[in-house]
Amino acid sequence: IIGIDDFDWAEAVHPRLTVIAQPVTAIAERAIDRLLARIAGEPPPDQRRHVFAPTLIARDSCIRLGTPAAA
């Protein structure tokens, strides 16, 4: 089982939940920079998308094949 976003209780459940964590701080900083630029009257940036790389945080809900399961 894999969840999206590294929420606080992902480590509190049993088994600890493996998650795909998004770089929330980087996403927020990019959004704020673009918003402030628009407020300042700067022309909108080109329409290319910016892709933020997620991070896999492997915990107990996923194991490698061939690895014995935790008791």
Descriptive account of the structure:
The protein is α+β, with helices and mostly antiparallel strands and 71 residues long. Helix content is 23%, strand content 14%. It has a 3-stranded mixed beta sheet, with no helix packed on it.
Structural class: alpha+beta
Which shape, going by the Cα principal axes? elongated
Strand/helix succession: EEHE
Alpha-carbon distance between the termini? 17 Å
Strand order of the largest sheet: 1-2-3
Radius of gyration: 18 Å
Low-confidence stretches: none
What secondary-structure arrangement, pairings included, does this model have?
Layout: E1 2-4, E2 18-21, H1 24-39, E3 55-57
Parallel strand pairs: 1-2
Antiparallel strand pairs: 2-3
Characteristics of this structure?
71 residues, alpha+beta, 3-stranded mixed β-sheet, 3 strands
